Amino acid sequence: MSRSTDIFLTALAPAVWGSTYLVTTEALPEGYPITLAALRALPAGLLLLAVTRCLPPRVWLGRTFLLGSFNFALFWVLLFVAAYRLPGGVAATLGSLQAMIVIFMARGWLGTPIRAGAVIAAATGVLGVALLLISPEAQLDPVGIAAGVGGAASMAAGTVLSRKWQPPVSALSFTAWQLTAGGLILLPLALIVEPALPPLTTTNLAGLAWLGLVGAAATYALWFRGVARIEPGAVAMLGMMSPVTAVTLGWFWLDQSLSLVQFLGAVIVLGSVWAGQRANRPQAHQMIRSTRKHAKVIA
Question: Per-residue pLDDT tens for 4-15?
C-alpha cells in the first residue's frame, strides 16, 4: 500500500478514540476508571488471541508486558488521573505533548533524525489543541499536570518501542499480546483499588462493547500496523485527530457550542497533522536503505 493509504488507515484509530469521552460519560457508570479500563483491554485482547491463535513466545513476554504497560495500563491510569484532576481541555492538551516527546525518544532509541519542521508541526499542534479545548477559567493541579505529562510520555514510549521491537507476527497478533498484557496488569489493580461494579445495564454493555471491540481491538490493530510502517513522529502527530473528533461529536451529538476560537484551533490541529506528515517523510536515501533491509529480511 502507498504511504498515504497507511496514514489514512492509521489516522482512523485516534479519530475513533475521540469517541471515548462521549461513550464514557453517556454510556458507562461513573467512578470506576481502572475497572472499566481493564474491561476494555482484557476481553478484547483475549478475543484477538482466540482469533489469531498466536501466543507470544517466552522471549517476548517481558517486552509484551512492558509494551502493554506503556500503551495501555500505565497510560490509561494516568489518563484517568489527569481527567479527574484537570479540566478536560488541559488534560487533552498535555496529552498532545506525546508527538513532541516521540520525536526525541525516537532520536535516542531509533536514531531517527530530529527535523525542525517536525518539531514546529508538533508545537503548533499543541497550540491548536489548547485553542480547541482550554477555557480561560481552567484550573491547574500539580498532580493532574504530572499525570497528564506522564501519560503522554508513557504512550510515546510505547509507540517508539513498538516500532523498535517488531515481532515476526501480524499487527493483529501484536495487538492481542499487548491488550491482554495490559488487561492482566490492570485487573488486580482494579480489584484492590476500586469497589465492585454495580449491575451493568444494556447501555453500559453496549458502551463497553464499543470501547473494547472498536475502540481497542480494531483501532489498536490499525495503530500498531501504522507504527510498523510509518515514521514514529508522523504516527504520533495523527494522535491529535482524537480531540478534534471529541469536539466534533460533542457539537453534533450533545449540542455543545463551537466558538470561533475552537474552530480556529481545529483548523490549526488539522494543518499541523498534515505538516507533520510531510516533515517526517523519510528522505530518498533512507527509503532505499529501508527497502534493502526489508528485502534482506524476506530473503
Answer: 999 999 999 999
Structure confidence by residue, pLDDT tens digits, 45-75:
999 999 999 999 999 999 999 999 999 999 9
Contact partners, residue 4, CB within 8 Å, separation at least 6: none
Strand residues in 133-254 grouped as ranges (E): none
Q: List the domain range (segments joined by +) for residue 65.
A: 3-298
Owner of C-alpha cell 481541555: 89
Q: Which of 132, 96, 138, 87 is nearest to 259 (CA)?
A: 132
Query: Measured in whole angstroms, how far is the alpha carbon of residue 275 from the centre of its chain?
Result: 20
What is the CB neighbour count within 10 angstroms for residue 191? Answer: 13
Cα R_g (the chain), whole angstroms: 19
Number of domains observed in the structure of the chain: 1
Q: CA 11, 15, 16, 17: dihedral to nearest 10 degrees?
A: 100
